[in-house]
Design a protein that fits this description.
- The structure is a homodimer.
- The first copy, chain A, is of the alpha/beta class.
- Helices cover about 40% and strands about 15% of the residues of chain A.
- Chain A is built from 13 helices and 17 strands.
- In chain A, the strands form five sheets. In chain A, strands 6-13-12-11-10-7-8-9 form an eight-stranded mixed beta sheet, sandwiched between helices.
- The longest helix of chain A is centred in the last third of the chain and has 25 residues, at about 310-335.
- The first copy, chain A, is globular and about 75 Å long.
- The N and C termini of chain A lie far apart (about 55 Å).
- In chain A, about 45% of the residues are buried.
- Chains A and B meet through helix 4, strand 4, helix 6, helix 7 and helix 9 of A and helix 4, helix 6, helix 7, helix 9 and helix 10 of B.
Chain lengths: ~425, ~425
């Protein structure tokens, strides 16, 4: 692969041409680039394979990884991220940040969240943190410092997400989820906070019904200690119609809105944000300063760069098309063996009820743990058992591996020694 | 800057060309773009400065920054970090990690910590986390899960470091610090954990006396619930003799050793580690998975790369020479105005007792908060008042700004309207 000329690179990266020439010389010396007389500068043959798409992962993990929770990985993304990090590093003298994180990133996020999710916020109501787990730890500690002690959390929900709350001394109660989302019937004035996934319930997949959205907002407004924590973990990905706007815009002073790059870029980046009611900004910043110390600054600046240049949203649009294609493929493949998958209107995972085939399918999964990776629904339930089902993520496999993965999944679900599922 | 053609934009963004034309017309009408006949569409001159690279930092901060807690920043370091990140990105297919972090980084750290600090550990007893604040949050939660509820912490100590413990439900008691380090006289079997800075007390600057090191290890060994948390925040920087080895090696199964890159590279990287007693590995990993989700993977791989190639230790050696030079300069400058600075045998900060000059010096500092940035010792005390003193960091200013900063400090300490300090 031939590199652009030093003049073009200098223009594109916004650095002096001398710098480009010096860096190129270094990389030639390190063997990463090759200078060929009168032809230009090329990526060295020994390095090129590292940049190609077709690497096999060194760490074990299942042959077909359909575990939920991860977006598609790709060297395209890595390359863009590295470019953004480099640009952020070059501009790092301009860092303007405080206990809430980079001001540049918070400004970009305020307008991005308004555009993409209808969130009503400003840069000074946003706090940057290291992903949703850390966000929960900070919000729980901030609310506990204000005297709150009781939280209601969906059951089923993200594995272990009650722990940040119990660590801060909260009593955790369950909101059982049905086809309209969390059952809010037992919410009362003794509950201080409610944790919800209103746009796309995790892991069941439905959306919180409009009547329940109104109900929970009314509860929070009537109850001046009441806060709703909205985990908008995959709100960018909706396939059947325009995204459901965030619940946050119905009550910006009662809803703590939490988002991250975990589903849009990669969970390994550990980068997320909170858009907060004004009263909670100071307590959450204090919790962040004392309990975690915030997120790495270069990563924050790199994300600000990706949003500012439009690359973040272009990437999301491209991925939305790819995931929509995968979702249709998954739906058709399962329909062809007599299975309907609920909860596929949005997001990167679906739920496959196992019915009478459960014992056969589960024993087959257990006997070949390295073949097809999926999660049992039971992993996500706390106290309310549900019929056996699989939570299947369709985002993780590479494009070349996706269809074979779905084929492996369907043959696992329908192999001859199993009774057909209802 | 010229925009791509409407045809190119339509392709790139995946929207109809009519939409591009309509939006472009709108932006021209709003004055954001300019259409120039036969030349194309350009970013309006009035907007362009917003996009340029040469912004001046928006955040003020003091003219001479002598606040403790940060190492020297430098573009050299940024460049090396970016190179390491790029190499890590190129090799990212090889990621081998689990809930404790990158296996590659943990292996490098196990041997680095043995070489540099005498720590006795292995890769599988190390957990990577996002700096010391997060480390404290995880250790407190893990010990609380095992039934611990009482912690003793040095007074004075790092601002707010009791909060991770109180959040997890611990009762916090104070260990008053004297010239031999923390006074351990009141430790008993009801105390579950002790948090110490044995190599270089923060912020007073002494080392824990050998008799007290033995005392606290005996306490932990005699008391099978007793754990010592060793905050080795600047153990790499000792100027008067070889570094005091970590307390951890005296009792690897009773000491939680915590370190980070905050003083060696930069606190903004939010990257640290715990070397743990075997019994605590599983509880700390579980706390990390539930409460924070770990540290960004590329950053972990970049640090592994810097340690493996020897660059990390070369950087520390270079910085040790630079800080030794600064420490001598600071000592001489203050001696020349009749001041002795204790606690300068190690680390990146010193303590300047103010004596009778306190009221004058403090009012001068308050009247010019943007001139010389230092911290009052009172910032770090919890319940035991001490004579007024300044905690002065000498690592942060650039090489060119260091001597002017010390000059500004000494003239602030000795200006004519102040009574000379004792």
């Amino acid at each position: 692969m031939r590199l652009p000329s030093s003049r073009e690179l200098a223009l594109e990266l916004g650095v002096a041409r001398n710098t480009i020439v010096a860096v190129t010389d270094d990389l030639v010396a390190e063997g990463v680039l090759e200078a060929r007389a009168r032809a230009g500068t090329f990526v060295a043959r020994s390095v090129a394979p590292l940049l190609s798409e077709s690497r096999t992962p060194a760490s074990a993990g299942p042959e077909f990884d359909l575990r939920p929770g991860r977006p598609e990985a790709g060297s395209f993304l890595t390359a863009r991220w590295l470019t953004a990090i480099r640009r952020a590093g070059a501009a790092a003298a301009d860092v303007d940040s405080d206990g809430a994180g980079s001001v540049a990133l918070r400004s970009e996020l305020a307008s991005y969240l308004a555009r993409a999710r209808g969130v009503e916020t400003t840069a000074d109501a946003i706090v940057i943190c290291a992903g949703y787990r850390t966000a929960s730890t900070l919000v729980a500690a901030a609310l506990a410092a204000g005297g709150a002690s009781s939280v209601a959390i969906e059951d089923p929900s993200l594995f272990g997400i009650e722990r940040p709350w119990s660590t801060s001394g909260f009593t955790v109660s369950d909101l059982v989820v049905d086809e309209d989302g969390a059952d809010l019937g037992r919410l009362d004035a003794r509950t201080d906070a409610v944790v919800l996934t209103p746009s796309h319930q995790f892991p069941l997949g439905g959306a919180l019904a409009p009547a329940r959205r109104r109900l929970v907002v009314d509860w929070a407004m009537a109850n001046d200690r009441g806060f709703i924590v909205e985990d908008d973990y995959d709100g960018e990905f909706r396939f059947d119609r325009r995204p459901v706007a965030a619940l946050q815009r119905s009550a910006p002073e009662r809803v703590v809105y939490a988002g991250s790059v975990s589903k849009t870029l990669a969970p390994d980046l550990r980068l997320g944000w909170l858009a907060l009611p004004r009263d909670l900004v100071r307590p959450v910043v204090e919790a962040s300063e004392a309990l975690t110390g915030g997120a790495p600054m270069l990563n924050q600046l790199a994300l600000a760069d990706l949003i500012r240049t439009g690359e973040y949203e272009r990437h999301i649009r491209r991925q939305r098309r790819e995931y929509a294609r995968r979702r249709t493929h998954l739906q058709q493949a399962l329909r062809s063996v007599g299975l309907e998958v609920p909860g596929l209107a949005a997001g990167l995972h679906g739920l496959i009820p196992l019915g009478d085939a459960a014992p056969t399918v589960l024993s087959r999964l257990e006997s070949q743990p390295d073949h097809v990776g999926v999660h049992r629904l039971a992993r996500y339930t706390r106290s309310h058992d549900r019929p056996e089902a699989l939570v299947v993520g369709f985002a993780t496999p590479s494009r070349a591996r996706f269809e074979p993965a779905i084929e492996a999944l369907t043959s696992l679900l329908t192999a001859r020694d199993s009774r057909p599922p209802r």
